[in-house]
Amino acid sequence: MKKLFLIPLISFALLSCGEKEKIQAVKEGQIAEDVYMYEAYKGDLKWILESEQSIMQENVAYLTNPIVKFYENKEVSSTFRAVEGEFYFAKNLIVLKNNVRIHSFKDNTKVRTTILNYNLEDEFIWTDENVYITRGDGNIKGTSLKAKADLSEIEIENQESYVPKSAEQDFNL
Predict the structure, then answer these.
(1) Which of 69, 153, 154, 158 has its CA 20 to 30 A from that of 80?
(2) Can you give the pTM of this predicted structure?
(3) Under CATH, domain 6-169 is a member of which superfamily?
(4) Where would I find the beta strands (DSSP E) of the chain?
(5) 167: which residues sit within 8 A by CB, 6+ positions away?
(6) What is residue 126's DSSP assignment?
(7) How much is the pLDDT for 170?
(8) What is the pLDDT of residues 60-97, one digit of tens each?
């Protein structure tokens, strides 16, 4: 089944941002505050992207403090957070940057990295940066994460694993 067209969705999201004075035309693009973008299938939310501010250009939105919430059975199943991000409409790609944190509520898996790419088409995430994962009582440090967005399948290169002896040894995720 073909996914929703995101460009009309972005236009709708801009219209639903709130008061007209919150959207200002600037040389670099349009600035919108309290931005919400989402994808739904048969009336059920798949994900919501929230951002404190977005600078919209023709093919990309630059996001401030983005949060992506994923839904399963009408409940939030996981979240991605970062300090900044970019949404490339034509590529269906969200790139999160700076202090990226993922939390999967299914098994309480937490991931921390500096850059994370998320492909909306195949629901796949990846990074070539260092990653720190906490799952259960164990921690994993590695590079080049590739995973499904719900963290059900994870591949990491150069991984080091250990079980912390105390909370101080945790990755503080």
Answers:
(1) 158
(2) 0.77
(3) Lipopolysaccharide (LPS) transport protein A like domain (2.60.450.10)
(4) 24-26, 29-41, 44-56, 60-64, 67-72, 75-81, 84-88, 93-104, 109-119, 124-126, 130-135, 138-148, 154-162
(5) none
(6) E
(7) 54
(8) 999 999 999 999 888 999 999 999 999 999 999 999 99
